[in-house]
Amino acid sequence: MKKIGVLTSGGDAPGMNAAIRSVVRKAIYHGIEVYGIKYGYQGLIDGDIEKMELGSVGDIIQRGGTKLYSARCEEFKTEEGQLKGIEQMKKHGIEGLIAIGGDGTFMGAKKITEKGYPCIGVPGTIDNDIPGTDFTIGFDTALNTIIDAIDKIRDTATSHERTFIIEVMGRDAGDLALWAGLADGAESIIIPEFDDDFEDIIDRLKRGHDRGKKHSIIIVAEGVGSAVDLGQKIDEAAGLESRVTVLGHTQRGGSPSAADRVLASRLGAYAVDLLLNGQAGRMVGIQQNKLVDHDIVEILNSKHEIDFDMYRLSKELSI
Ligand code: ATP
């Protein structure tokens, strides 16, 4: 293999740039040419492709977002779109591809691999919703952004003796909510994986209030539903006047944390190693701090599991 491509697709995540840098530098270290494909699979179809040099990835390790831009591309879900992408790979002499993104991105990588062009997936999404890896690139940074926001909200919650309901990202996975809740001592954490008993949420609030607690924090993952609606329900049931904050896209941006930069650097380089070793249709990950790789089809057919022990602990500590 002499030429490989790299793209970022789906939602951006802090640390994607560090992963791109790692792919480019590791490939060049091995004497391989690297082509950056802009706007994910849309750029692959359109031939928005350019050769990357060592300097192309200078000064990006500390930046959020993705230098290669990202896009959602419906056309690539079709056979025709995929064939157009393959044509562009042929035209540029690209023999293998590294795709950084979430499960949708891996679906695209699987399709290209099936058409004879080896692809390796690198998990980059703040949600931490990918099986086969303990952490995805971007999760740690997003978590720290949430913690920072909640710490600030807590000052107001204490000063005004208020209950705050904070909605964080996580359509299918409650990891951000769970980790943030544990890190910030939330009274209740409401996530899509568990059907929370509404009475239990109210009881916790009342117990806290009865023992003189000045404020309460409830964290809700977006996948559960609207925090505003939940706030109204809680206010009616507990006789409160809570405040709702939806953190939204602030969670996606920002300079990646040290942990995300290191993770991205390790995963990006490992993906290059796999391609050069003739592997195809794999996803790289980290489990128990060891680099691992899995069949991308297996990953697509399985589901990320939330850490139930952590969930239980959060309940025990917010008694
Ligand atoms: P995130 O979870 O952060 O949103 P993602 O990678 O899951 O990331 P998606 O929008 O689901 O984001 O997928 C990204 C892109 O991958 C899609 O816009 C599309 O181009 C491609 N893709 C998704 N599903 C398929 C599929 N079934 N076949 C081919 N390509 C696909």
TrEMBL record:
Q: Which gene encodes it?
A: pfkA
Question: Domain of life of the organism in this record?
Answer: Bacteria
Q: Where does Mg(2+) bind?
A: D103
The protein's organism comes out as Halobacillus litoralis
Q: Which UniProt keywords apply?
A: Allosteric enzyme, ATP-binding, Cytoplasm, Glycolysis, Kinase, Magnesium, Metal-binding, Nucleotide-binding, Transferase
Q: Where in the cell is it found?
A: Cytoplasm
> Which residues make up the binding site for substrate?
T125, I126, D127, R162, M169, G170, R171, E222, R243, H249, T250, Q251, R252
Q: What is this protein called?
A: ATP-dependent 6-phosphofructokinase
Residue ranges occupied by any Phosphofructokinase domain in the UniProt entry:
3-275
Q: What is its EC number?
A: 2.7.1.11
